[in-house]
Design goal:
The complex is a heterodimer. By secondary structure, chain A is mainly α. Chain A has 16 helices and no strands. In chain A, α5 packs parallel to α15. Chain A starts with a helix and ends with a helix. The longest helix of chain B is centred in the last third of the chain and has 38 residues. Chain B is globular and about 75 Å long. The chains are: A mainly alpha, B mainly alpha.
Chain lengths: 326, 362
């Protein structure tokens, strides 16, 4: 077990270096630099000495493999550099944007699980009957509806036509003058539409996932035994069948961890929500290399860690995996 | 004994084979067949897009020769003759004036997906206004540049389906090749390819696609296909690798090696046909995903330059919420297409997966 862990972490570290190298090379070779926008500004001094000065400050005068090694060295000691655009440390930028993204993704995760488990159980228990078929079809259609299309429809009808919810943004204009209770309410009111967009897709997917797993478990012999013993259908479903579907379900929670933090570029863009996804998009457009590298690093580390955790969890919980992989 | 005579034995029906059986099972699912019909319909629309909606004649005879100006939407060479004769894209008047003997067959719906229609281009058709609601002249309304939305939707179908098929074809080719190589040869090739798959999977797709698109100056529809296909092959590769690892251990492969059959032949003629069935399902879902990615990219503003697309209409709609037709129709189109492909993929899965068949399935 220990050697397996060490090997996975070592390979993971290598993969991380490869990923960051690839992204660094890609964004450095994109046409345009952080200075191109400044060059167009007539107020900014664009004498050759000034440009050379700025380039040295931004690290643009070195060839990009060298600059990458420079960045890697800094990152290993915890220094992710300063954002070009906002002039504050990248770590600060990430922390600032992390809060809003988590404000959307964590309620969405909780809501998904609260609703998808009963839905999955229900559709499994009433499989084949008319109401279940209708529910399945509706969930399937929800699953196929792209999130940005749903976001636009929601904006069109709920925000513009009927004005039940705000169109975009995280807070109202008079946020600073509100009491804490009003502030909380304001945040929730603004977060409703984005959270709906985040949730409905995963809800549909998970309830189908749970249903598929439950159907496989329900075919097993021990379920037949439980029923033959005279246990109530609810008992059979909840105490005997559902627990055996938990392994894939919890593994999936682990795998969605990176998405929790990275947010959705599209939804945050549609609702002008100041989160990680939108920050990533803006940084790429502004050629803000340190921020892009910082966010990519966070995302890649989380992806690798969550995959490793999922594998370990699987091995710990399911003895068959441990024995087979010897 | 029953009536089994030697003659009857000679004429026993051949077993239909895996694919015919799977098709029979697929046909029984009404929703999947409906979805297949929808996709077939969309393919017809995409194929005949310039003949359905456009401002150029489908076929015309001009000065004694036959031309197909409608294909000018795909390549300017089809319109070269008319360019040199100073038509400037206006066909009806000029054909009549310059050659009274000419005739032309026009598209079903006269409107252009790339520009507004001007005064006098077509008798009884007024010039298109900006931001008009759906009416008899513009079935789906117009956008803020005065370009007809229905024509854009029809030509956008071609964009969506083309990107879906070609990028998925590319992804499938790359994924199956890598997966087959990794699964069959094992050893350091497997380790190397698995690392590559892991790296590409861990990179946030948005970053990769945006970076690649930014490197290219003007992203045409072909660039987008290459980029989307080049980033979407990892799932297929992993699945193919798993299938090859599983099938490699079987006896008939060892027998083939003993007989001296070469590696490439074994991979492509023995293993691949058997590994293909489970891989078709993620490929179908992948087509839906590719269409989704393309509309999302167009929606964000990174779409193919010069080609109409559903995502571009949605982007225009976001800036003008009062023009509901800019969101409703493209949104419905994207939704229906993705739903149709998902249904086909699910039908395919249930038709080919042996585990679901064992206990009668659902």
């Amino acid at each position: 077990m220990f050697t397996y862990l060490v090997r996975r972490i070592a390979i993971g570290g290598l993969t991380l270096i490869l990923i960051t190298f690839l992204i660094f090379g890609l964004i450095r070779n994109m046409p345009g630099t952080p200075l191109t926008l400044d060059l167009l500004d007539p107020d900014v001094d664009v004498s050759p000495e000034r440009i050379a000065q700025l380039e040295a400050a931004y690290g643009l005068d070195k060839p990009w493999p060298l600059a990458y090694v420079h960045w890697l060295g800094n990152a290993a000691t915890g220094d992710l550099g300063k954002s070009f655009k906002q002039k504050i440390p990248v770590a600060q930028v990430i922390l600032d944007r992390l809060g809003p993204t988590l404000l959307l993704s964590i309620p969405s995760l909780i809501l998904t699980y609260i609703f998808s488990i009963p839905l999955g159980l229900l559709s499994s228990a009433r499989a084949g009957k008319l109401d279940e078929r209708i529910q399945s079809t509706i969930l399937y259609m929800l699953y196929s509806l792209p999130s940005f299309v749903a976001a636009l429809f929601l904006q069109l009808y709920l925000a513009v036509r009927w004005e039940w919810f705000p169109l975009y943004g995280m807070t109202s204009n008079n946020y600073d003058e509100m009491s804490s209770l009003e502030q909380t309410w304001d945040l929730m009111w603004h977060a409703t539409l984005p959270v709906i967009c985040y949730t409905y897709g995963s809800l549909a997917y998970y309830s189908r996932f749970i249903r598929a797993n439950l159907q496989e478990v329900l075919r097993q012999d021990f379920i037949r035994t439980a029923r033959a013993k005279g246990l109530s259908p609810f008992n059979v479903m909840w105490h005997h069948a559902f627990r055996n579907t938990l392994i894939p379900l919890v593994t999936m929670i682990g795998l969605t961890l990176p998405a929790l933090v990275s947010g959705s570029v599209i939804i945050e863009g549609v609702f002008s929500w100041p989160g990680m996804g939108r920050e990533l998009l803006q940084s790429i457009s502004e050629r803000d290399y340190p921020t892009v590298m910082g966010i990519t690093l966070v995302y890649s580390v989380l992806t690798l860690v969550s995959q490793l955790l999922a594998d370990i969890f699987y091995a710990v919980v399911d003895p068959r995996v441990r024995i087979d992989s010897k | 004994m029953s009536d089994i005579s030697p003659e009857k034995l000679k004429h026993l029906k051949k077993s239909p084979g895996f694919w015919k059986e799977a098709w029979g099972r697929f046909r029984q699912r009404r929703l999947a067949m409906l979805a297949l019909l929808v996709v077939a319909l969309l393919s017809v629309v995409a194929l005949f897009a310039p003949a359905i909606a456009g401002s150029k004649p489908v076929v015309c005879k001009y000065q004694g020769e036959i031309y197909f100006p409608c294909l000018g939407y795909y390549s300017p060479s089809f319109e070269a003759r008319f360019l040199s004769d100073n038509f400037f894209g206006v066909y009806y008047k000029n054909l009549k004036e310059k050659d009274p003997e000419s005739w032309a067959i026009w598209p079903l719906y006269f409107n252009d997906p790339n520009r507004p229609i001007e005064e006098g281009e077509w008798p009884t058709k007024p010039p298109t206004q900006q931001n008009e609601a759906p009416n008899t002249n513009n079935w789906f309304g117009t956008d803020d540049k005065g370009i007809d939305v229905f024509a854009q939707m029809v030509h956008g179908t071609r964009t969506a389906l083309l990107i879906g098929f070609v990028s998925m074809g590319l992804a499938a080719t790359i994924g199956i090749t890598f997966g087959a190589l990794a699964g069959y040869f094992g050893g350091w090739i497997d380790v190397l390819i698995s690392r590559v798959i892991e790296v590409v999977m861990c990179v946030p797709t948005i970053v990769l696609i945006l970076a690649l698109l930014a490197v290219i100056d003007e992203a045409t529809i072909w660039h987008m296909m290459a980029v989307i296909g080049g980033t979407g092959w990892t799932g297929i590769a992993r699945l193919t690798r798993g299938e090859f690892l599983r099938l490699k251990a079987q006896d008939y492969i060892s027998a083939a090696r003993v007989l001296g059959v070469g590696h490439i032949r074994i991979m492509f003629r023995y293993l691949l046909p058997n590994a293909l069935a489970p891989v078709l399902v993620p490929i179908t879902f992948g087509i839906a995903a590719a269409i989704l990615i393309e509309s999302a990219l167009s929606f964000l503003g990174f779409g193919p330059a010069g080609t109409p697309s559903w995502g571009k209409l949605l982007r225009a709609g976001q800036n003008h919420f009062e023009d509901w037709w800019l969101i409703f129709f493209p949104g419905l189109a994207v939704f229906s297409t993705v739903l149709a492909y998902n249904l086909i993929g699910e039908g395919l899965q249930e038709a080919t997966d042996p585990r679901l068949r064992e206990n009668g399935g659902e």
